[in-house]
Amino acid sequence: MVDLMDFLRNVQLSFMLFLSGACGVLVILTINTKTLSYKRRCALVNMEVAACLLLLMDRLAYAYRGDESSIGFWMVRISNFSVYFFSLYISHSFTLYLVDLFKNEGHVKHPYKQFYACEILFAIGALMLCYSQFTGLYYGFDATNHYVRSSGFLISYICPCMITLIQLYTLIRHGNRLGKKVLLPLIIFVVFPYIATLIQIFTYGLSLTNLTMVGLVVLLYFFEIRNMNDLEQARLKAEEANSAKSRFLANMSHEIRTPINTIMGMNEMILRENAEGVPTKYFMSIMNYSNDIRVASESLLGLINDILDLSKIESGKMNLVEQEYDVKELLHNLITMIQVRINEKDLFFKQNIDEKIPTKLYGDVGKVKQVVLNLLTNAVKYTNEGGFYLTVTVIEKDEENCKLLFTVKDTGIGIKDEDMDKLFSAFERLDERKNSSIQGTGLGLDISRQFAQLMGGTLTCDSIYGMGSTFAFIVDQKIVDDTPIGMFMEEDLSDIKNKYIPKFEAPEVKILAVDDNKMNLTVIKGLLKGLKTQVTTVESGQECLDVLAKESFHLVLLDHMMPVMDGVDTLNEMRKQGYNVPTIALTANYYPNGNEYYKDLGFDGYLSKPVDADLLEETIKKFVPVDLINEISVEDANVLKELPDELKWLENTEGIDTEEGIKNSGGVENYMFSLKLFLDTIEDNEEVIEKAFQKKDYKLLTIKIHALKSSARIIGAIHLSSFAAKLEEAGKKENWPYLNMFTPDLLTEYRSYLDRLSRLNEYERYKVAADSQIKPEDLKQAYEALAELIEAMDIDGTEMVLSDLKQYILPSSDQAKISAIEKAFHQYDWDAMEKALG
């Protein structure tokens, strides 16, 4: 038996030397392992250094046992003390390792209390070891300088064993945060030294505990290596997935931007339509709808671009696209885009816009719009009763910069305190069960926060669960025009686009448009219609080459993505065949540096779909010969710069400021439309206000007075607008006595505009020649046609007949009848039209 123990000791000494060398190598490897967190790397290095020194000291102790010299005496005592201390220190370092592991892998903010207990036990164990060194509590030495256990040797095992048990308990209790793949090796690391310690108590003379602990330190490093390999595999898979995502997004971009191109192009043509002869109210409705389509399409286009830039956000390469913008236009667009959703849920929406905000600012208006729109959209999503407030305030301002605070406060469901940390995390959705019916990816707030940070701003949230939330977005913008925006009006018909005026005409310019999508070709032709250019369209690259062989052109608009022969192949073939005509790429894909990209491919430039009409005109002007361009001035475009002589009486009309009205309406022609619309709707609106007042429906009354305030301001009826504003404010504050007292006076003043503007109905007569008297038989046929058309509710036919009748001077009785029919037509009231027709 003695021989066996000596053999095992010799094997043990050789193994110690091997393991100590291995631990020394691991120290170097661990220090250079950059994938580990700093604290975990330090904990591993501490364990490996302690393991290396423990083995060397244990081997040294064996080597000098029995040496009765002075050197042997001190080497044995120092070595034994070191062995005890380093074995205890490994347990301490493993505790630090676990703390960092739970923090980074288990996402635990604060260390568990059990780990503090481990550190206290480590301190007690170290102090007891020092005490034993002077008292011989744990061990002593015989006359031949051999290690001898003392009566209190079992006490030396208490602290290490307690630390081990606490570590084991913590891993079992909270191991679900780490996962089984990580948890099982750690439990083995804890349990094996514990078992070895129990065996060593009864196996005097072998260092089983030390060898086991050191061996497992080595294995722990390889456990980390395995994790690093897993991370590398995960990284490769993520890169593959990211590549697939990029391909998908690029294809999605093309597929989605193509129909958007059609929508925006067709909508642009609607906005360019001539309004002459069209019923005023009908025209204004169409223009409003068309304007809403434009705003929503631009927003959708911006969102698509943002989705494509998601990878840039993640890599920190997202850039700002700064430009000059109009603050009122930004606010109107935001309100227009959110208004429909508000109406669907019957929520209130109140705005408080600082009148001191500069009129024009410089910054990334697209990102500002997306952040605020996202906050407004979330407010609507998560608010079922009540409503929300949008507040925009100037919080700091100097000569060059203006710091804005956008606040969105809702009365919705609010956010739990424990969910606040997840609020701005990508793809996180809070309270899933409660919000399961609400659509969304959870990406919006994460992108919004990163956009805010990119612009040097902040996005924060305060919330009380069950009562609502307040989001605050602060951003600093440069000032372009320091003129204050003044009182902001939610409803403003001046948003309606002015009459389209081409910048030039080029009837001799020949343009070839190539696109496999017929709708896109229709859009291009429509956008070029006002320039009077000669446009030829083909649907493939081969057709393009065939047409070029027969005819010369000044410019080619060539779609990039086409089947069989795409735009690049077509361009290359054009150049081979000697066709050097300037060629512009059309693409529905999104390229941040599009000009450089397409110029490298051989194109002269590029236009992104949806094609911007102004950019298209600028491109044509840039590449076609100057002598073929006929510049158009405002005078040539027949745009009214002042009121016609027949309407000069408006300048002297009580309660009307024509100069203010023209400015608010965005031009003379819009002002004339606004005036006629205001007049035609007085009786109907007045009736609604009167009924709401009689029924004491103060909510509806306040809404209608608000609308009157805006429309009165647009036509320059400043006093009426101010009067309505005071009553609207009273309605918002539920000051019913004030409303009861002054609403009749408001109605009286409102009705007075029927007389003040009555001469507008005669304006069309001034445009008709004095000898354009209608023949009795023609008038009779017109009445017969109207009878049939009204009975069939034929809008187009009725509109055409009424438009034709405006070309003639009618007898006064017939003029009154036609005016009544026309007024009813504006309201699409077919019964009233039949009644007026008689």
Largest β-sheet summary: 7 strands, mixed
C-alpha Rg (nearest Å): 41 Å
Question: What structural class is derived from the secondary structure elements?
Answer: alpha/beta
Shape: elongated
Strand content: 5-15%
Distance between the termini: 130 Å
How many strands? 16
Calculate the mean pLDDT score and round it. Answer: 77
Helix content: 55-70%
List low-confidence stretches: 426-443, 491-498, 634-638, 765-771
Task: Give the helix tally.
Answer: 28
Describe the structure.
The structure is a single chain. The protein is α/β, with parallel strands linked by helices and 838 residues long. Helix content is 59%, strand content 11%. It contains 28 helices and 16 strands. The strands form four sheets. Strands 3, 4, 5, 6, 7, 8 and 9 form a seven-stranded mixed β-sheet that branches. A five-stranded parallel β-sheet has the order 12-11-13-14-15, with helices on both faces. Strands 1-2 form a two-stranded antiparallel ribbon. Helix 15 (567-576) links the parallel strand 13 (555-559) and strand 14 (583-587). The longest helix has 65 residues, at 208-272. The protein starts with a helix and ends with a helix.
Q: Main traits of this protein?
A:
838 residues, alpha/beta, seven-stranded mixed sheet, 28 helices, elongated
What's the structural blueprint in terms of helices and strands?
Elements: H1 2-31, H2 38-64, H3 70-104, H4 113-135, E1 139-141, E2 147-149, H5 158-174, H6 180-202, H7 208-272, H8 280-308, H9 310-315, E3 323-326, H10 327-345, E4 348-353, E5 358-363, H11 365-381, E6 387-397, E7 401-410, H12 444-454, E8 458-464, E9 468-484, E10 504-505, E11 510-514, H13 518-528, E12 534-538, H14 541-550, E13 555-559, H15 567-576, E14 583-587, H16 594-600, E15 605-608, H17 613-623, E16 630-631, H18 658-665, H19 668-680, H20 682-694, H21 698-714, H22 718-732, H23 736-756, H24 763-766, H25 776-791, H26 795-805, H27 812-826, H28 830-837
Parallel strand pairs: 4-6, 11-12, 11-13, 13-14, 14-15
Antiparallel strand pairs: 1-2, 3-5, 5-9, 6-7, 7-9, 8-9, 10-16
Helix pairs in contact: 1-2, 1-7, 2-3, 2-7, 3-4, 3-5, 4-5, 5-6, 6-7, 7-8, 7-13, 10-11, 11-12, 14-15, 18-19, 20-21, 20-23, 21-22, 22-23, 25-26, 25-28, 27-28
